[in-house]
Amino acid sequence: MLGKPQYEQWFQTNLRCSQSTFCRLASWLSTSQPELMRRETSHLFKKKVAVLLYFLGSEGGYRDTGAAFGMSKSWCVETVNVIVAALAKQAKLWISIPQTPAEWLRIEEDFFPKQNFPGIVGAVDGTLIDIQCTKDYDGFYNRNGDPSLNIQAVVDSKLRFMSEDIRPGSYSDKKIWKRSKLGKSIHGKIPMGCFILGDAGYTLLPWLITPFVPREEGGKLSKLQKHFNFKLSSCRMSVECAFGRLKERFRILKTPMKEKSLDRTVSVVTACFVLHNIFLHYKDDLFDNPCQRRDRNDHVQPQDVDDVENNSLLRLHAVNKRYSIAKIIYQ
């Protein structure tokens, strides 16, 4: 089947990637994680990679995956767990923030043409992933009463995930940001004057710029403020599109996940994020075409209404910075 053009559609439909991407992924896994090969033939290993992608790309679970490949459910469970664990170990390699000012500035240069909006080096948001309720999921219920994970991510303009933080579904986006390693350290990592874009669910900070909110502006926004919000929302579409394409490619994330433990659930989610970035690196364009329905991040935690920052001087600095940016892009 591999290498035959007539099977390209099968790969795209069932494995959610092209044949060439599949072959590159299998080759990389076999060389970077040689323990996965053991005494297996190349053909059998590729079959295992195909099983993984089929499982992640479908909503049928292990039983349907096994039936599709003529293998037992238990064999599929073991195969998926082993490769998922290997991918999760590679998360720091594939999901990382820039390490130098020059790398940050390249991201800013990529964002700028979208809306002539200076200073953007990332966009942050959270998305909910429903999970099956088991004993060790106590406290993981979101505000709709469903057991879930709230996953916060920062992306660049090319939809690459630069960070990923998985928390209980009861956490708000703002709470995740404040407790995350990135949220605590980002102000010392990005170049002076640069910032991450967030929605109104986040606290306004000099390094985290959020939209103007009517209740904080006397109940009504000016033309300048509305213009700023439109530009900010347009640039923030990067993170919404990234989540949308992640879930469309790995459809296991669109239905309640049925893993037996929280650790395995987190590993599967992390593997999906890693594969998303790998496929971007491979320039797999299967989901590149814009899709308004897909590229909306609708499954989110409701926003907190109380958004008061304790440090008044920091808040004032952020407010002034936001107004300065709004004036620049309004001209």
Explain the overall architecture.
With 331 residues, the chain is α/β, with parallel strands linked by helices. The protein has 2 domains: 5-89, no CATH class; 98-260 and 286-330, no CATH class. Helices cover 49% and strands 10% of the residues. The chain contains 12 helices and 5 strands. It has helices spanning 8-15, 19-32, 42-57, 61-69, 73-89, 91-94, 101-115, 173-179, 181-185, 223-249, 262-281, 312-330; strands at 120-130, 148-155, 161-168, 195-197, 208-209. It has a 5-stranded mixed beta sheet, sandwiched between helices. Strand 2 and strand 3 (161-168) form a beta hairpin. Helix 3 packs across helix 4 and helix 5 crosses helix 11. The longest helix has 27 residues, at 223-249. It is elongated and about 65 Å long. The model has no long low-confidence stretch (mean pLDDT 90).
Provide the descriptors you would attach to this structure in a database record.
single chain; 331 residues; alpha/beta; 2 domains; 5-stranded mixed β-sheet; 12 helices; 49% helix; elongated; DDE Tnp4 domain-containing protein; HARBI1-like
Précis, in short:
This protein is of the alpha/beta class. It has helices at 8-15, 19-32, 42-57, 61-69, 73-89, 91-94, 101-115, 173-179, 181-185, 223-249, 262-281, 312-330, and strands spanning 120-130, 148-155, 161-168, 195-197, 208-209. It has a 5-stranded mixed sheet with strand order 3-2-1-4-5, with helices on both faces.
